[in-house]
Structure formats: structure tokens, C-alpha cells
Batch of 4 targets.
Target 1
Amino acid sequence: MPTALITGASSGLGEQFAYALARKRYGLVLTARRAERLAAIGDTSRKLGAASVETIPIDLARRDAPRELFARTQTANLHVDYLVNNAGFGTTGRFERLALERELEEIDLNVTALVATTRLFLPAMVERRAGTIINVASVAGFQAVPYMATYAATKAFVLNFSDALAGELAGSGVTVSALCPGPVRTEFQAIAGQDRDRMPSFVYLDAETVVAQGIAAAESGRSVHIAGVANFIAAQSNRFAPRALISMIARRIYRPPDGR
């Protein structure tokens, strides 16, 4: 049976990926930090049709955690055919005022862990000449975002890394796709300190819709998918508008409410 590994599976897009792939009868390996939340999502996934469910609570921001995760799947004889690198978070504020350790943790989770898990699970997919990797990027990866400088930079890395791998793996039987959502109503906003609405309501998509689009894009072999028409237009406009103008617009949108 095919097996899907989903990181950051305890909420938001990761949770919806679990449910969507459960309906497709995948075996699931779900990982995130919150053990109780993972267990609950695992129970729901079984009810939705998952062939099997393994939950592995782990903090992938730790440098050695991806290797631990890989070792546990090997010990359990789990052959991962479908990898969803979804774990990540954002921070908001003036960079010089943000906690350094939190910014480094953001890079470790959004970038380092994603690279490590991809590198660890990809060789077996290439050897089998079959596999799917979805890396969750963001429309923020298409531009610099003042007051979310680190987050946007990490997602630019994810976008370009995924697109490059897709080119390397052309004809190998392995698909790599970067999923680029815009605003999604999940826990992300609260964690990033974005409790107030910065975008009009029509821009927001629900997590289930974004996941359905991401899975369909990967199935069709697309290396990059921007979820939502408004987000697609916004991302494409960055190719033609002056960078200074794009930065000014983003600065006004994401400026903290205290004006600092």
C-alpha cells in the first residue's frame, strides 16, 4: 500500500492533507510536536479510510530530528511514497526587535528540516522510479515582505529549491511540487502575530480547498501551484511591477498595528 508522510500534521494544511490522503486510502505517517492532537487526527484519518496510521511526535526544528524521523520509519519498515513537507511557521515585526533564537528556529524548521527530509526520503523514491513530494511554500516566496522578512525569505528558498528539484527529477518518475497558498484561515496567523485582518476576506481560502488544489497539481506534474485566482494574479504581477513598489505595498499591509 502507498504511504504518505506529512509533517506539521497537527493542524491547518497538514491536518487537511491527512484527511484528503486518508480518503485516497493511503497509509499515513503523521508527525508534529503535539502528540495528543496528532492522535486525534490519526483517529479521524482511520475513520476516513486510511489504510494505516502511525503518529510520530517530534520537533523538526531540532537539527537531528529529521534523521530520527527517517530512522523510525526505517525501523517500522515504512516505505514513504508521498512526502508532504508542511511544517513551518512565520514571525511578524521589525527584524531587529524579533528574538534571534525564534528567527533561527524558523529557518531551521521552514528550510533546514525540509531539505533534510527531502534528501533522506528521496533516494528510495528515485530507486523505485515513483514518488511525490509536495513542499508547502507561499505566495510570500515571490517577493520580499517587510515585517515578515525571515518568513518570506524561507518560502522563496522552498519555492526555488522545489522548482530546481523538479527539473533535476524530470523523467525519473518522481514529482516535486511547490504549493504556494496565500492567506489561509489556520493557526498560522495567531502564531505569526497576525490576529488582525490584513487582507480582504475574498483573498482567504479554506485549508481543504488549498490541499485539494495542491494534490491535483502534483498529480498533474506541475512543479509550482499558486492556490487561488487572486493570489495567482498578485504573484504574477510581481514579475512586472518595480520591486520598490511591491515592497512599499507589502510594508503597508504588514506594518504592525503599533506603527513600529
Target 2
Amino acid sequence: MISISNTADSAEFAPDWVSPPGDTILDLLEERDWTQQQLADRLGFSPKHVNQLIKGKVSLTEDAAIRLRNVLGGSVGFWLTREAQYRERAALIDAAQRNADMVPWLERFPLKEMMDLDVLSKRRLDKKSKPSLVGELLAFFGVASPEQWENQYGKMELAFRRSREEQADVAAISAWLRLGERVAERLEGPRYSEDNFKKALNEILSLTTQPPQQFHQRMKTLLHESGVAFVVVPALPRTHVSGVARWLNPHKALIQLSLYGKTNDKFWFSFFHEAAHILLHSKQKTAVFLDDPNKEGSNSPEEVEANAWARDILIPPTAASQLATLPKTRAAVEQFASSVGIHPGIVVGRMQHDKLLDVSWLNDLKISFQLAQ
């Protein structure tokens, strides 16, 4: 005998979520030996409406739930929950079928690497798993379909300001950008202030002599208070990006680094290069400055300007003029760095870049490190 409790979470009755509430109704009709016509008479519905209700072709409304409670038993909550579970399951099945048609879209992204970062659930990339992976990737980007992804992220390419020709994989770059967005979206803070940003940069410059475990949190705090989010996201294949500067909205900027290179001279130059874009090019609110300033070849005015600004804030021109005659010894480099107030690894990187020092010399003065977001 079928028993329906007056609570929605009855232990005696646990319906199959895949089936419509009509299956439960049919079971109860069979128990009572009623016809659909008899049920319709008791509910005050037409036989056609009852038949459609049983087949799940019409929704079970609050009014129908009350009538079913009075006629067949169970609580209103039970019937409404039964309907909600069925509609949810039906929607998921429909979504899975649509996702199966979207599987080719997956091939554009570095899926395995995104799984390694726990952005996507780890799984075998087979025919069975790919439709659900489509749904996960859509949720990651916060879009409903590949068409919306194209509108939101694919067309972002028009805003890219590239420093390298290799930065052409829009899908991979968009995934890396989205990783930063997701972190920044959780960081509520004040609006961007140019004055506060300049003050923050001056203090951050003094932090270059400190190890990451000491400077990282202070650096994030200073930037946060000036309206600039700072995030560190591991590099993804095919992006060729060490950093990006962009505006998430008119009042919040983002500096995102990948630690590509992992030595402190490259890290600090990359950071101040991106900071230059925020400070000097703030009128270009829609631009996305994709940078690998450690590589040569970009002739855009913005990149040249950002390179020069980062170079000069780290080692002012008056001090940099001494580098050509600086003895190529550890002691001389360390003394010079101390006089300028920066880490000696930055001096080594600058001298190597300017071809004043062989790229194999004094690299032990550089510091390799990782930063955890």
C-alpha cells in the first residue's frame, strides 16, 4: 500500500526524481482503483488537464498541489517539491543534450591544465564526460552558451593590446583572464584613486628587497586600498602572457601576473610595467594590455611607454647612467643596489638586458620564488 506522509521529506515515500509527479498520481489511482475521470471529478479539473498533468505536459501549480493534497493526501510541499525535482531533472537532461552538441567548442581550451588548477573537475576526456565538461566550462566563464562566450570573451580580442604576435590564442588567453577575474570579483574595495595608487607604488618599490612571504600581503593591501586588484595566476599553455593590465569596470583596475620566468627581476619589471598601463593609460578603459615585457619586438607607443616607465622607476636614469662603468662583481652590484634601494637581482637583470653583463653572470643574485594567491 502506498503511504504519503504530510511532510515533504517522508522516509516512507522517496519518489524517483526523473519521473514526473504524474507517476505518483497513477500509482495512487491504481491503489484506489480510480479512473482519471474520477480523479478529475474530485479535483475539479477537466479529464484533459488531468491527463496532461500526469504526463508532465503541464506544470503542477500551487493550486493543483492544494487540490492533490485534499484528494490524494500528502502535503502541499510534497507535491510542489516533486514537481520542482522533476522540472530540474528534465532541464538538466535537456541541457546535457544541448551540451553534447557543443562538445567541439571544448577543443579550443587547455582543458588538462585547467583541471590541474582545479578549475575544472578532473576526468577522462572521453565522449561520455565531455557534455558535462561543457556545462562546467560555461559555468566557469559565467555564460549560457558558446555564443555568449563569443560575445563576452571571443570578441575581447578586439580590445587586446598585444606585446607579442604569438598572443593569438583567444580561448586560452580568455581562460587565463577569467581566472584572474574570478579572484578579483571576490575582492570588494574602494574605487580607484590615482593619488593612492601612486603612493602605493612608491611603498611597493621599497618592498623589492624583501622575500615574498614578507612583501606579498602588504603589496596586495596597498593596491587594494587604491582600487587596484592584484592577482597571481599560473600561466596556461598557448597564452604567452606574463602579465595583464585591464579595467574590470570604470572604477576598478586589475593587475594580473603569471610569474612567467619566476625570478624577481622579471617579476618586478612585469609588475611595474602593468602598473604603468594603469597609471598612464587609464583613459583606455576597454583595452586589455597583454604583456610579455621580457620579450623584445613590441613597438606600440603604450608598450614602449610602459617599458620606459618601469625601467626608470626601478633604477632612476641618473643612477642608471653609472651602470656602464659599474664593476662586474657581486660586491659592486650589491653596493649599487643598496644605494638605489632595490634588490641586487633587479640590477643584474637590467645589466643583462642592456648587454652590460653576460646573461650567465651573477644570476645567483636573482631570487626565484612562487606567490600563492
Target 3
Amino acid sequence: MNEQVQPAGGPMFNPLSPDFIRDPYPHYERLRTVDPVHVTPFGQFVTSRHAEVSLVMRDKRFGKDFVERTTRRYGPAIMNEPVFRNLSHTMLQADPPDHTRLRGLVVKAFTARRVEDMRPRIQEIVDQTLNAMIDRGRMDLIGDFAFRLPVTIICDMLGIPEEHREAFHKGSSDGVRILDPVPMTPDEIKQSNARNLMAQMYFQQLFELRRRNPGDDLTTQLVLAEEDGNKLTNEELTANIMLLFVAGHETTVNLIGNGLLALHRNPDQLALLKARPELMVGAIEEFLRYDSSVQMTGRVALEDIDDLAGKRIPKGETVLCLLGSANRDPAAYPDRPDRLDVTRQNVKPLSFGGGIHFCLGAQLARIEAEIAIATLLRRLPDLRIDDVANPEWRPTFVLRGLKRLPASW
């Protein structure tokens, strides 16, 4: 049996504590140093170093096996809950051959050429958003700016009609607690079920609309795949459209928000980026590394693993990969990894995952953030964040982002 290493003052890995949410990076450093494959009170293995995180994400001895790891945590009845049943049908939680089939249906929408062709539309949305705000002299950089861009882009890609979009622009992302390693409470599950069922109802109506009026969009493409029943079931259609909507904006909102906060907490880097806008592409990689939108991903051991940094991982056990910790591992980034440096070379953050589950929308998220931040710095050079020292973080761990970020100019 693996011995658990716990600090004297409490658990070493407590990702929903206010202190951890506010700044997880000192906790990561301790994990990497003291217990790089840590066993949590819930019996999960937590990897925190770059080497092990990279290995687990890419090694075929590990898979998703969502139903197995979820029923281990909650019991078999949990799969009757709509939000868990829905997630089990997504490509995010699938192993081959289902993962290969599901991903193959949408991958063409995210080719490098298609994403590059979106640049003019992305610039248009950013400029329209700033035009509506610029005379006010202040805004919330999350709700008024970062949120609207990726939501509009994913609505474009899914063919969501213009008249339906305002509800999405006013939406909330509180339902992502399901991804956190700490089990949800019955009340949280109930609330997530309600949000999930409402979303399912909307997308079922959208499917009917696209069956009657096909368009050049992802929803039409997947509806046609559903009608060819060998490719997609109705449950898979619903689940993966909902996944694309959430994943299509969640990480980008956080990338923009976390990047802007990091810049304003490091005025020398902010001044450098304003003076040398050609550094922006590399700066986006550094933002991803420095304060990742996605802090963790998970895998299940598909066979007994004899030695992962000195620990034996029995078949069926969950391994959590701390992406945010790996991105600051001195073994991968020896030059002061806890410092933001927009000129840093050879930055290859693990923020978009790895292996067969590498994020489909990674390049789209990069381009959206690049255009959004560059335009903001150019058009509002005097912008200042009201409180860089004590921003309000969302009370979730896996998807790290700010509730709001008030700013003025």
C-alpha cells in the first residue's frame, strides 16, 4: 500500500481551499519536492512534475475510462444523473475506438488553415466590443471583454442563430465543478443537472432547426453524422455539441483574463509588450505556461504500472496530472519558472493536454487571445486593473479563471 505524505497542518493537496484557489503554485512546489506522485485522501494519485505528467498523458497504458473512475468515486448510481451521463458520451472522456470516431467528425473544423481564416472575424468582434466600451472609461475585463469574444466565435462555428446569442453572452460557467477532483455535493449535482437539462433542451431544438435548414456549420455536420447512425448516436450528438460550446470558450476566457492579470502584476513585462508588440505570439505561450487556464487532467491506469516516480499504480486507479505544476517545474524551465517572461524561449506548455486528447481548439484559443490582448494594449494603453493584488477567482480548480476583473482608463 502506498504511504500518504501529509503536512502537519492538513492535506498536501486541497485544491478547493481558498488559499489553493488564490495561488496554487507554492502548493505545487511542495508536491514536486516532497511527494511528486502523491496519494490524496480520496485515493487518487497526483503527479506534479513535468516528466511524469507528460508520460501519463501520452502513454497508452493510461486511458480515460470515465465510467470506471466516476463510479469508484460516487458509486454506480451516479451514472443515472444527467450531467454525468452526458459527460460520459463526450470525446473528452472517451478511449479509442470511440474517441477516434468522435474526434474524426469534428477535427476538420479546427485545421490550421480554417483557424487562420478566422482572424478577420476575431478582430472584428474585438473591435466591436471595445467600440461599445471605450467611452465608458471602465469595464469588467472578464464579463465585458474576455467572455464575449470566444462565445461569439463558438456560436458562429455551431451555427447558433443571432437572435439566440444574447442568452449565451449573459451565461454563467459555474457548472464546471464536475471536473474538479473533490467530489461534488448532492446540491451541486442537482444544480448541474438542471443546467445540463436546460442546455440539452436548447441544443435539441437547434438540431431540429439544422435538419430543416442545413448550414455551413459544425452542428449541421454533426446532425448529418447522427442521421448516419454508424457514426453518431443522439446522446453523442447532444453531449459533444455541448462539450464544443463549453470548451470553445471556457479556456479562452481564462487565458485572456489570466494573461491580462499576469501582465498588470508584472509592469516591466507589460511595458515591454507594449513597446514590442511583435513579442505577442510568444507571450501567449508564456501566459499559458505561467498561469494555465486548465490546471489538471486525469487518466486511469489500464494495467498495473510498476513504477511511476517510485509509486506502484494498480490497474483501474486514477492518476491526476497537474498541468499548472508541470508548467513551472524547474526541470523543464530552469530559468526562474515562477517569473513571467514574455521573451522566454522554447516555451512548450502542457496547458492543452497531450497525446490523443490534445485540445482540438488549441490554435483557435491562441489566436483569439493574441488578437484580444494585442488590440486591448494598442487601443487602451492607459488601462489599469483596479485591484491586481486581490482579484476574485472562481471557486473551481481544474478550470482556473477570474470571476471578474474591473479596470479603468
Target 4
Amino acid sequence: MPPLRWTEQGWQLDASVTGVTIDSRQVRPGYIFVATHGQAYDGHDFVGEAVSRGAVAVVGERRPVAALPVPYFCVPSGRVEAAKLACRLYNDPSHDLTVVGVTGTNGKTSVVFWLTHLLRFAGRGTGMLSSVVNDLGQQRLAATLTTPESPDLQRYLAAIRDFGYRYAVVEVSSHGIVQHRIDGVRFEMAILTNITREHLDFHKTMANYVAAKALLFEELPENSAGAMLNADDPYREAVQRRLTAPVVTYGLYQADVTAEILDSRPWYTDVRIRWREQALKARLNHPGRYNVSNLLAAVGAALRLGVEPAVIAEAIPALPEVPGRMHMIEVVGGPKVIVDYAHTPDGLYQTLITVQDLHPAHLWLVFGARGGRDHGKRPEMGRIAARWADWIVLTSDSPGLEDPQAIADDLLTGIHEVDAGRLWKIELDRAQAIEEAVLQADAEDIILVTGRGPETYQRFGDQIVPFIDVEVAQKALDLRRQRGVGGRIERDGQHQRSHPGV
């Protein structure tokens, strides 16, 4: 029997097949290589390499130029077939799991981490696939994509199942949806955090972006636990209209699952959560109304999955910190530095107003924008920065193939529309930008560094440069302490001017 063949029942794989991949570099003996058209590369250019590495069959979207020593199948969409092949190879692992998908522009990772925590606290073995880490139970793998490519996704779900877990919480990106990475996954529930401007370089319009998110919910079976939708989000109705599965709403105002904020302090929020005729009180050890919304999404999903309210109330105070989200670095006698992933207009706004609630003497913002992404959001982010930050240091994020100065100029357009005096400096060397803000700030100031959060590298062209914001900020604070310096801020009319304190 050949290693791969097509029948009326779909793909049939011989026992000798050991893996499926769309990345020729991952091919091992016994693998099926699926060639797809990517944004940067065409997988068909690497068919020969895949065969030389041991591929036993190739699936592609166009006929090969030369004869191959292994079977070749031509299909309309390599990504669609890669998902089907992976499902077949790993015996449809999602059908043995209760899988919850979490999508939205902001808050996805927090909801994934917190729902996983609530389920585990209730004694339910739960795996987690997120943009930060893929926790498979016996193995934790660093994430490279928000949603893994379909062969990896199916392999991870199979590992979660084989470890003995029965739940999986999966972060689902709009790219992952339209690129068929989640094809074949049976979701028992899907959660929508919010939809704000993002990825229009890829989706082109907000209508396309919303439609992409809605696809996750359209596929929910009518007899599933259904959709958990944010009642406070203006796009919720556009998604809900396309559903046949049950819908539960959550929100800070009118919703099925709602919350009353009893006390809000800089680093915790006391809430009373109401669901049906039940109520629970708990302390959320995270600041900001947006985190209360994230909490409601996780709590609502846990309640829908049958976790007892008393268990949830006990679990909430121990919710984990999410890497790269509101990560504070404090030193004696120095300014506080907060590193956050905020990289969209709404994310930046929510983070800035949350940090302002901490009442710093001055709020410094060190930020840039990702290269190759939606250019239209950059002036909007500049306007938000100028409205809410006292001092702005524009720097590079991960520019890729774009000119870092051109990215900064896009952000600067929005800053100038609101208040050019808020710009303290443009310093495209990110390490230098963070260091200078730390050295110049007053001890009572807060320096917010946004855009990259837990990421570990920057891209400049085809070059990957290791870079971790938290580590760079810590080194800058150490340098400040060694030098024994501090900033001083003087007011000049309506604007603030900075003078070196060195």
C-alpha cells in the first residue's frame, strides 16, 4: 500500500506515515510535505528539499516541474488538505476533548490563561495553546504563532488527549481561521473578547475582519455549550446574527454574566459577579476594567462548563499573571517600569488609562509600531499616546522590512494632531530609548513600555535580533542605581519639558 492515497472516504495514510508539515525544514523520514503559498515564501520551491529530507509523499497546489520519486497529489488548497491530513494522522483528537476557542482583538491570551486556571482549579485536566506558551500537560513549548499551523495544532491536541487531559483552551487568531489552521477542530465553546481595529493589512476592511472572527462561531454545533459573547462590544451583534448555537453574553453592564466593581485599587479589583440567580464575590489581583471584562469571559465559560461558583470564587484570587501583560519592575528609589503587549489602538488606550489610575507623577510611554502591519492604525495610536501620556519616546518595535523612521513618522502624525509637546524624543534604538527614559524619569514616575510584551526578538529585514523588554528595562534600572541619577521635570506653560538629570 502506498504511504498516502485518496479514496471516496478521504485521505488514507499508511502506518509508515509519521508526520505532516507545511514547513520543509521540519520534514523527517516518513513525513508528508504539503506545499502552500505563503506571504513570504512559496512552499513549492522547497519540494525537492522535503523529499531529500525523507518525505514519503507530497501534496501541492500545482503540478511539479519534474517527476518525483514519491507520490504527488495536486489539490486546490494545500492548507485545507494539511488540516485534513493532520486530523486523520492524529485520529481527530478534538473529538475526544472539550475544546474552547478564544478569539478577539485584545484579551485573548489573558482569557486563555485564566479559563485554564479555573478549569484546573476545579480538578479538570486542561491543556492550553496560546500565543505565549503551548502547555500540553507533560510538555510546555514556546509559541511561535498565536494559533499553530494545522499539523502542529492537531499534534498538540493529540498530546493533550494522550496525556489524559479532557479539556483544551485554544487561542484563535483571525489569520488562523481564514488560513484553515483550525479546520477539523470540534469546538464545544467559543469566546469573543472584543473586536477593534487590527490586521487590516491582511483583512483589508473591518467587515472582512469581523467576518473572519465570526467563522469560528458559525461552526459551533447547535448542541454545543455555544458562544460566549461580550455584550459591551459593538461588533457582538454582527457575530451573533450568524450563529445557530446557544449564546451567553457577559459584560460590565447588561448581560447574562455581569459584574459590579465594589472597589478598585491600583493593583486589585474587588468584584461581585452575577449569573442567573447566583452571585459570587472575589478579589481580582489585576488592575483595570478591561481585566474585569477578561475575567467575566473566563468565569462565564467556566460556569457554562459546569464549574461551581464557590470553586470559581476561591480560584479567582490566585489567577496567574500573563507574561508580558502589565509586568511591573520596581526598584527602591527608582521609577516603576511596566512592560505590556498593547499594540493596537484600543489596547494602548486601555493600558494607558489603567496606568494613569496608579497616579504617577508623570507617565512616560516608550513605544513604536510593528513593521508590515496596518499603517492606518499608527496615527490613531499616536493620538491616543498624546492624550494620555505625559512624555513619549518613539522607538522601533520590530520593523521587519520597513524603515523604522517611516514607522515613527506615521505615529508622529497622530501625536502632532493632539500635542506635539508630548514627544520627548525619537530614539529608534529600542534599548537606548528605554535606558534614556529610565535615566531621566523621576522616582515617582511610571515608564510604560508597550508593543512587544513577552516577545524575545526584533526583526530587522531578514535579521532576527534577540531582545526582551523586561531584561533591557531591568538593566537600565540597574544602571540608574549605579550612577545614582534621577530625572527632573519642569513645567513650561501647558506642556512639560524634560532636562537631563545626569
